[in-house]
């Protein structure tokens, strides 16, 4: 599976995650979101950049509970809660947000 962005072919695994994490860019995130029929807005970008920060610090993609706690810590309780994150990411915030952020699939996501 692959994605074409700015004239480049980006390899994806069978679940649609990047094979090479260094292929990520905001344009790649937009293209991945398009595959999910999602238009990225400010709230999405806050979480995507937050996830990339989390990954840089801890070298893993957080599951939903750690994502909610980290978002609450960094973005405040209005944005760091399951209702907000589920609304933004179609009910699968850890998995979909990680995919759009160019990170590996969280280990406990199906």
From TrEMBL:
Q: Enzyme class, one word?
A: transferase
- Pfam families noted in UniProt: DsrC
An example of a Gene Ontology cellular component annotation for this protein is:
cytoplasm
* One example GO MF annotation: sulfur carrier activity
Q: Which InterPro entries match?
A: DsrC-like_C, DsrC-like_dom_sf, DsrC-like_N, DsrC/TusE
Question: Would you kindly state one Gene Ontology biological process term found in this protein's UniProt entry?
Answer: tRNA wobble position uridine thiolation
Location in the cell reads: Cytoplasm
Q: Catalytic positions?
A: 109 (cysteine persulfide intermediate)
Gene3D superfamilies per the record?
3.30.1420.10, DsrC-like protein, C-terminal domain (1.10.10.370)
Its main localization is cytoplasm
For this protein, what is the EC number? Answer: 2.8.1.-
Q: Keywords in alphabetical order, please.
A: Cytoplasm, Transferase
As for family, the record states: Belongs to the dsrC/tusE family.
Functionally, this protein is described as follows: Part of a sulfur-relay system.
Instruction: State the name under which the record lists this protein.
Output: Sulfurtransferase
């Amino acid at each position: 599976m692959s994605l074409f962005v700015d004239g480049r072919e980006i390899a994806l695994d069978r679940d649609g995650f990047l094979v090479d994490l260094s292929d990520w860019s905001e344009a790649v995130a937009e293209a991945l979101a398009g595959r999910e029929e999602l238009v990225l807005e400010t709230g999405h970008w806050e979480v995507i950049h937050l996830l990339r920060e989390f990954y840089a610090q801890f070298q893993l993609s957080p599951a939903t509970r750690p994502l909610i706690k980290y978002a609450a810590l960094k973005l405040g309780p209005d944005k760091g809660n399951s209702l907000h994150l589920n609304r933004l990411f179609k009910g699968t915030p850890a998995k979909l947000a990680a995919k759009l952020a160019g990170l590996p699939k969280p280990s406990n996501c199906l």
